[in-house]
Amino acid sequence: RPNFSDGQGTATYDSWDMPRLFQSATVDLVSNETSQAEWTIFDPRFSLIDSFAGSSPVPMSTVKVWMGFGQELGEPVFKGLLGEVRREQASTVFTAFDMAFKMKLEKKAGYKNKKDELAIIRELAKRNGLNFEGPETPLNLGPRNATMQDEATDWDHSLELARDAGLVLFVRGDTLFAQRPAKVSSPVMTLKNRGDIRLRRGWNFAFHTPENRDGRPKVVRQRGRGSAGKQLEGASGISPRGREDLVVKRDVPGKATKSKLSKRAAAQKELDREHAFHARVETIFPTDRKEIPDARQTIAIENVGKLFSGSYIADTVNFQFGPGELSISLDLYRDIAE
In sequence order, what are the residues at sequence separation of 6 or more whose Cβ sits closer than 8 angstroms to the Cβ of residue 272? Predict the structure, then answer.
């Protein structure tokens, strides 16, 4: 049974006090998608699931997860809503999704007039019981003439609006954030290979020359001229008729060119940016570390060669807990200038 109850329906399960209870626990922190937590509990006689739920399901129960060592763990790394409980032989598996789960349950229709993207997202967050925090500096995009939510969930509608404004959407705790794409800043954590940590097998780093450094989509397009000077476009490198003109990588760095992009299209270009460096690393979480990294934060990697050592932005952060071990997996990226 739970080792603690506050009399208000809250139960706490602590691997420190109950070391044989947890088989595993994972937390995935992401942006523009659903962050989630999943934990597996050894429960051969159904005692835990019976005490937790009885004969009634417990949908939308609030879940908080802490990760780290010792008794003082600070703020939870994850807060969400219970979305699934399943049984696997002698184990019970719980899955919780971040607090935006409520925004994803029902398709809705609506109409907004003369409001910008942030104002609409703020309203959608409020009606789902979430706080809202926008970018530190104003967007100055101006109001939209009309915005239709056409049988879409509040989450999907918010994602569409955020992309139009060049913003990234994510939820932490009870707050929905709409922020500009992350930039490299002061590292919250430094991982020094063969020093204080050792990267596990399977880590990899990659570099390739980005093809759209100014953020526009890649352009490899063939054009030709037909009768009466009409322009023809094809998917191959051979024109149906007329003079061929192969246009490749029109967005290479250099002298600035005139653009007819709207403010919203210009705001989106950073979301389409192709990054030069990508990495995936996994390591045992250091027992002396109090910093808990999150997606969009800066992680410094050292002793992986001069080319690949440096500061990266965390795209996804995954915590994996098993008996006697806490590991962390990171998907990372950075640009040449960073």
Answer: 212, 215, 216, 217
